[in-house]
Design a protein that fits this description.
Layout (H helix, E strand, L loop, with lengths): L14 E5 L3 H13 L4 E5 L2 H7 L7 E5 L7 H11 L3 E6 L15 E4 L3 H14 L4
Length: 132
């Protein structure tokens, strides 16, 4: 009998911001997050939209596409850092991952990501941040 892997479930009441210009990937991530206990997931398809959403700084964490057009993801990363909201970068499968010099320690996940991989990285991020 094969033992099923333990599923990492997110702590309750988390609000998540997904910044992703590919709506299929964004909706897939939203589904993964809500299935694993996120209380709310908002999707921003552009830097301007994400920065407007961050006027309400109650997000628990964010997933930010590192390859938004015109390096817009860095403006979002700076704002998240100012607000103390932990985040991870996401990049397309097979892309060479070089963290921006201002954010050398930010975790990076490849897309498309599996549910177990994304949940494990987010649980690690929240644990490193000392969040429940």
């Amino acid at each position: 009998m094969t033992k099923m892997p333990t599923r990492r479930v997110l702590p309750p009441m988390l609000r998540v911001l997904i910044v992703e210009d590919n709506m299929i990937i964004a909706l897939d991530a939203e589904d993964m997050l809500t299935r694993n206990g996120a209380a709310g997931v908002d999707i921003a398809g552009s830097s301007a939209e994400a920065l407007r959403m961050l006027a309400d700084p109650s997000y628990s964490f964010a997933v930010v596409d590192l390859r938004l057009p015109n390096a817009e993801s860095l403006a979002i990363a700076w704002r998240l850092q100012e607000l103390g909201i932990p985040f991870i970068f996401s990049v397309g499968y097979g892309e060479q991952v070089i963290n921006p010099p201002a954010f050398p320690a930010v975790p990076v996940v490849g897309k498309p990501f599996s549910e177990s991989y994304l949940m494990a990285r987010l649980a690690d991020l929240l644990e490193a941040e000392g969040r429940p």
